[in-house]
Amino acid sequence: MACSEFDFEIIKKSKSCNARLGIIHTPHGNVKTPAIIFCGTKATVKWVTIEHLKQENTQIILSNTYHLLLQPGPEIIKKAGGLHEFTGWNGPMFTDSGGYQVFSLGYGGVAAEIKGVRLPKGKKSLLRVTEEGALFRSYIDGKKVLLTPELSIQTQISLGADIIVCLDECTPYNTDKMLVSNSMVRNKRWALRCKDELERNGNGKQGLINVVQGGIYEDLRLESAEFANTNNFDGLAIGGSLGKTSDEMYSIVKMTKEMLDETKYVHLLGIGGIKDIFTCFKYGIDTFDCVSPTRIARHGIALVKVKENKIRNSNQINITSAPFTEDFTPISNECECYTCRNFTKAYIHHLFKAKETLGGQLISIHNIRFLNTMMENIRKSIDNENIDDIEKDYCNE
Amino acid sequence: MACSEFDFEIIKKSKSCNARLGIIHTPHGNVKTPAIIFCGTKATVKWVTIEHLKQENTQIILSNTYHLLLQPGPEIIKKAGGLHEFTGWNGPMFTDSGGYQVFSLGYGGVAAEIKGVRLPKGKKSLLRVTEEGALFRSYIDGKKVLLTPELSIQTQISLGADIIVCLDECTPYNTDKMLVSNSMVRNKRWALRCKDELERNGNGKQGLINVVQGGIYEDLRLESAEFANTNNFDGLAIGGSLGKTSDEMYSIVKMTKEMLDETKYVHLLGIGGIKDIFTCFKYGIDTFDCVSPTRIARHGIALVKVKENKIRNSNQINITSAPFTEDFTPISNECECYTCRNFTKAYIHHLFKAKETLGGQLISIHNIRFLNTMMENIRKSIDNENIDDIEKDYCNE
Lengths: 397, 397
Fold this sequence. Notes:
The structure is a homodimer. By secondary structure, the first copy, chain A, is α/β, with parallel strands linked by helices. Chain A has two domains: about 5-35 and about 65-290, TIM Barrel, CATH 3.20.20; about 295-380, no CATH class. In chain A, about 40% of the residues lie in helices and about 15% in strands. The first copy, chain A, has 15 helices and 16 strands. Chain A starts with 6 loop residues before the first strand and ends with a helix.
């Protein structure tokens, strides 16, 4: 039994693989899993109103602690009554620990979703990692910030999301095994400090997720997984370096998932490509998150089933390209989103040519609905034991 | 009786001034006047979906023939079934003639709403004005385009708006009276060519508006007005140079309006400030248009009643300014728009600080509702003969 109002229930397990149907119970409602979590990095899913998110069947959104810690700051959001009140989103919400951005920026590999970074290119913002925490420089005003496990949790308490995450260091691919090991072991100590902080200052409603690290090393993943399994966290996440190629990633995710307590909710951090989802839900991953659906939308890329794509063997069509100038059909004939019910590809193509933001808004709305429907279809296929039948609609050969 | 499905009906005249309540009947529905027309320059009201426009009680929108002639071109919109089909807006719609942009760009005074102009700064796009029409260079591809009265009307027929406008030359403030006179007289010939073109190729459903010009000269305005009154147009518009100051503008609008057939619908082109509306509806102006409500919104400026403004004696508050960092109240406590029902000034302030587009979207939605409600209040005040009572709510001393 979880130590918070958060709970995870497995409804059904697939007979053919490790996929499962579940329900995450939170104080702001339930999430049917497998599910995708849409990224509202700075307390908004870019360009999309809450109203449209809801209309397109969005179950849960995510905000980034790193960004909100720096702007507007947790005090403001706490005074507003938490992120739910602040943003108007009254459904389930997830925040990460802030660690991923601190470390991905810090090691020079600037995560693609981080916009508006004001530090000179190439200048690393991470100053020092010690037992105490990670010292980094704010991209807002250049001030030094020490992100400790306690500060991460205090911030996430102020934000008030339903699912929150322990601070962990995220080592890059090329790190020496000894350093990955030291980092993973320190992550365990940080996780216990996070748990203590939440127990001391939390309201008992937030579910705490522990991130399994260990890079590409099986023994380190196992040590991290055993810690995660035995410390009564509400859920687990697979994070850190997952290798260089998709295949390597899939094999690490599969290996790691098999090490985890199978009754626990498991999130796969920062991964949410269509092929990734179709591969990893079969390993038993319950939720995914990725900035890509709305980011590609702002560049004119719409998601479609492979069989609907007349141009190439892919899930993506580029609405800004010439063939759509006079295409008076919706992005998808079978999609029921606001965009597909009301607008043609020719109109959206025009909006991009005219540099009108509405074009990116309309494709964002479509991509959100597309993925929500895809996840619904995945859930149905688990229920009906016909997973393989739908995969060919969504994934190219 | 009008020569199209367009019709204008006066419901009531004020006892204290020339204000009137009216209804514009169009094939896509009615517009209660006095009304404001929101600008959807390039076939979209910037950053706002049709759904939000409707929710906020928008009656009628405008698109610019100049922009749509160049991108995507009238053929595409015609193939789409017209602007209503293309944009998804199924209510009343207005297009201008394209003349204003050709001439305002051409004389070097680049209209503020024209974005994305690729010509070098200061380079004039207007090449020549002859009896035939205005030759200008496209800002899209540099090609020469001859905008004739016939091309303007053919384009507006393809666009299919309910209210369309005769091509006219719009001379700037500092123009010699003889040149203004010659231009105004040529405008009369152009208007007759427009009327002929519409009768030849139109579907009988579009109402044709003639623009009264003549600059700041009473005798020229009178000559233009007499022409407009006696040539069976569906409606009239006051355009051209209206002087240098607001007071001069008001006196020219008043003078010109008094010259016009009082049974005709009259639009005031490109004017829609709150003080302008409150002054000019009393002269009997029926509709206004202005890009400002959504443009200022994208820069963080929200419209409020003067009495609601705690900071200064004005209709505008700048949500990006420091006092709103911790202001957990809506833009307006009495406003019923989507934004005010769901979001605080602190949240919108954060969105602007985080460079999130949603901030501008939310203020745009508010400003649209604010003005639609203001116009509704104006209509009620005409009906109730208490115009002066509401003016003090909206206008500073």
